[in-house]
Amino acid sequence: MSNGTDIMDTSLEEKLKKLEEIILGYGQMIVAFSGGVDSTFLLAFALKAFREAGCPDNVAAMTATGPQFAADETGFAERFCDSLSISHKKMDVSYVLDVIRENPQDRCYYCKKAIFGTLKERAEMVGSVLADGTNLDDMDDYRPGHRAIQELGVASPLKEAGLTKAEIRKALAQVGIDTAADKADMPAFACLVTRIPYGEKITEEKLEMIYAAERYFKDHGFTQVRVRCHEISEGLMARIELEQEEMEMLIGRKKDSTPADYEAVLKELGFHYAALDLGGYEKGKMNKSVVA
Prior knowledge:
Elements: H1 10-26, E1 29-32, H2 37-52, E2 59-65, H3 71-83, E3 88-92, H4 96-100, H5 107-125, E4 129-131, H6 144-152, H7 157-160, H8 165-172, H9 178-181, H10 204-219, E5 225-232, E6 235-242, H11 247-251, H12 259-268, E7 273-276
Parallel strand pairs: 1-2, 1-4, 2-3, 6-7
Antiparallel strand pairs: 5-6
């Protein structure tokens, strides 16, 4: 498969060759497509592999939707599939919130088990292998959801091929599909439930507030942002995580905005207080206190 690997390092080229062999070995596959970096790469790479094998219709996508997923991510998933004529089904899984509403530490296990169980049933009905975007780096964080994926027998070809997040971004930029390459520079994302500390109840109202707040920051030029929602005696507090180099955009008193302006917007959305996390954004930060 020719995808610009002449300018890639040998180890990455070998991993991509292995990934191609794994995917073509499925015969037919459906990608659990969130619209994030990893699943975008997996879907784009699989489409190219099956196209070059003369069977482009052997790959399809399914996207879970609901208040726990950011609308711009699911919107991207729909536009991406439409632009490449990929068969794409959306499935409303809002019911899963009732399963995880009390927010236990292993909530991701129950969430993934419910969602991927449904997706896998649909995939098997049409004789396809269900694959997700888990990569090698995902094994470094507390991820009880991965146990559910393994129990269900969902394929994780990126992990099986030994691809890391950095390698996926590098390969995505060179996969030869413009709408996929654009995603290579996009920040990482995770479902909105991860913004709520374990043990604090998950509600549709909190999820809507979190999404609106993060969308506001992104619309004002911030790239990687997390709005953590904490219960306090007075109500809800927003704890803002930003990249270290972008904090000046918030705390520096620019002519067009001040920290008080951001606080005012957050209060309008329903937060009682807003605080800036001086440690900045860090992947898996909410799992620091969890013993896996």
